[in-house]
Amino acid sequence: MTSLLHRPRRLRRSAALRSLVREVHLTRDDFVLPLFVCAGSSVRREVSSMPGVYNLSVDEVTKEASAAFDMGVRGVILFGLPETKDELATGAYVEDGVVQKAIRSIRDSVPEMIIIADTCLCEYTSHGHCGVVRDDEVLNDESLELIARTALSQAEAGADIVAPSAMMDGQVSAIRETLDASGFENTAIMAYAVKYASGFYGPFREAADSAPAFGDRRAYQMDPPNAREAMREAELDYSEGADILMVKPATVYLDILKMVRDRFDVPLAAYHVSGEYALIKAAAQKGWIDERRVMMETLTSIKRAGADIILTYFARDAIKALKSDEL
Ligand code: PBG
Question: Rounded to an integer, what is the distance from CA 49 to the centroid of its chain?
C-alpha cells in the first residue's frame, strides 16, 4: 500500500461527508422568479421557447406568486406586456398599467413576497427599444425622465425594489432622485449594471414581446468581449446609489461576476436569462442531459462565482430539488 499523506478522495466517500465539506450551498432565499404579466383576465399562455413559463393576467400572476411563495420562493421580478404600445412607452408608467396592478394584487394576497419591478421601456414602446427613439437613434437623456417616471409608478404601487435594465447612462441617479423627491427613499434599486448585448435574450423577447422593430441593442447594452468596461459600469451604478448590482447573463459571464464580487461590497445579483434556461430545457426534452442535475450544477456555479441573488426561471424547480436533497 502506498502511503499518501494527501488523499482528497477521503472526504468524498459518502453523501454526508461531501455535504459536510461542501463550500457552496444553494438555499431557497437565493432565488428570484421572473413573471410576465399581461392584460385581460384568466389568461395563462405558455411561452413556446420557455416551457413552464407563461404570460399571465393579473389574477393569474397573483395565483402564480402565491403558489410560488407556498413552495418557498421569496422574491419575484415582474415584466409587463401592455395592451397597447406607443412611442413614449405610456403603458410603463400609467397608474393602472399591468405591472402596477400586479404589484398591488400580489402585495395584497402575498404580503411577505419581495416584489421587484423590472424598470424598462422596451416592452411598452411600439419600436421595442429601451428608450425614446428619434431618427433611428435611442436617445439617452430624453429616456431618463420616462425611466424615472416608470420607477416612481412602480414604487407607488408598492414595489420593494425597482430594477432598471435599459442601460441608459445615468438611469440609477435619475431614479434615485425621483424616488427621494417623492418620499420613496426606502425603495431599493437593483441595477442591471453589467448587461451585455446578448443572443441569450432571444426567448425573453418572445415572452415579453419586446424584440426591437429595427436594429439591435448594441448601442446601449455592453459589448460581450469587454471586462474592464464592466467594472466601469458597475462603479458608475454603485456611485449613483445602486443598492444591488447585477450581472447579466450569468453563466457565460461568470468571470465578470467574480470580478464584480471582488471589487464591490454590495449584494450581487446574477440573471440566469431566458436563453440559458431554454438551452437546458431543450436538451433535457431531447433526453440528452439530466435536467435537474444540470440545473443545480449551473445555479451552483453562479453562486460559487459570487452571486448572492440568482434570478432564474428555475426558481421553483431548484427549491423542489433542494427539498428532495439531491444535487
Ligand atoms: C428588458 C430586459 C430584457 C431582459 C431582462 N430585461 C431583454 C432585453 O434586454 O432584450 C432579458 C431577460 C431574459 O432573457 O431572461 N430590457
Answer: 18
